[in-house]
Amino acid sequence: MNDRFNIDDFILNFDPAAPQARFLSGRLGAELVTAEAALPRQVPWPNGLAPTAMPLSKQPSETDDLSKFHGYDAVVVTWTAAEASALASLFTPAFPTASWYEYRHAVNTYIPLVTGAKAPFRDTAADMTRYYHSLGLYFPCTIGQAKVLLFKSGLHLDYDGPATPVFKLMSELAQTVAPKVFITTGTGGGIGTDVKLGDVVIAGTVRFDCQDQFAKESWSKASFTPSKLPPGALEALVPSLTGVNAARIVGARPNPKYFSAANDTIVTTDFFAFDDSTNHFGLQGFGQVCDMGDAMVARALQAFPDIQWYAIRNASDPQISNPSNDIKAAQEQAAAIYARYGGLTTAASALAAWSIIQTSVDFLKTHKDGAVRPGFKLGRKHNG
Fold it and tell me: What are the GO BP annotations of this UniProt entry (predicted)?
């Protein structure tokens, strides 16, 4: 058995659809379940609104740009292998991420920027071939009348090094596709006892809390305000949709709670952090869930004021009980919960993305003159 445990490798690269041998033989091997148990089941989508995969008629070259998707209604960016597999289970069920297209357009401009030792972009292992010198995986689909580009990022704020190349990548996506709606979504660590396993934060605020490699950057504590939710978005998240996969998560609510108030916050840290009962990483009081990238996406999107943008995170682990003050043991407990339930909790945030896309795109298409209801404003930088 491999007794080494690399939390960063596991969170980023473990794929419940096709678990890699190093994880099966590692310390969390006993926590891993079959893909059928780990990934979301289909839900009873409303008539005409089920996500539908739209494979390209011709296999694109990995060096192609994304201009063929210019003018798409929405882009949905996710980050880890497990998140992408869960998203594919719901949005492109006949096309798992193993069949998604590889994106390496102008990759040579990124190679000198990615210097982090833990970056999947630099991993030459045989089972990391799809991620080596890869900017991401993508696949198009539709939600109702909306055309949507799904994108699993190959770059990561906390692992790629000081040049933050993910800022360049997110800017490139926004500029090339020019969607009406841009969503970043994924798993995160619940902060505080009010956030239960499987709950979701549709952020009213996204902020940095950089304590490590980016602590001295001018934006290390900056916060941003996402776009206001479109009419009907929360109302569309009915129990018949949200309860299907929530019921499979031990310790979760029968239907996840969606935090969406102006002060409900996603906290982006510059290392793998999580909340525990000792408040080891000092996250309590800053927000409802922590992640490792959304605030940098928000920062990139400040240059695109015509794009509505949203950040969505599901609590793939709750606050971890740590009565013995052993942060390493607490970390492994958080990873074990993620291993078992990260794919299932992702269903609730994928549903939030679905709801925002179909309600906002419908709203925007019915207001082609650019007039929007009071308060339906574009995201803006808050401070920093």
Answer: nucleoside metabolic process
Residue 377: inside a domain? no
Dist CA 98 CA 341 (whole Å): 21
pTM: 0.93
Expressed as residue numbers, the domain containing 352 is 62-369
Q: How do residues 77-127 score in pLDDT, each as one tens digit?
A: 999 999 999 999 999 999 999 999 999 999 999 999 999 999 999 999 998
Q: Is 77 inside any structural domain?
A: yes
Whether 334 and 189 have beta carbons less than 8 Å apart is answered as yes
Question: In Å, what is the CA distance from 236 to each residue of 17, 241, 258, 382?
Answer: 28, 9, 12, 28
> What Rg, from alpha-carbon coordinates, does the chain have?
19
Q: DSSP states of 96-161 as a string?
A: -GGGSEEE-TTGGGTGGG---TT-GGG---GGGTTTTT--EEEEEEEETTEEEEEEEES--TTTS-
User: Are 317 and 189 a contacting pair, CB within 8 Å?
Assistant: yes
CB-CB contact of 372 with 192 (8 Å):
no
Joined tokens for residue 296: 């940098």
Half-sphere exposure of 101 (CA within 13 A, CB side): 24
User: Strands 136-143 and 146-153: what pairing?
Assistant: antiparallel
Phi first, then psi: give them for residue 102, nearest 5 degrees: -90, 140
CATH of the domain at 266: 3.40.50.1580
DSSP assignments along 303-341, one per residue: T-TTSEEEEEEEEEE-PBP-TT--HHHHHHHHHHHHHHH
The total of structural domains in the chain comes to: 1
Helix axis angle for 165-177 and 294-301, nearest 10°, is 50
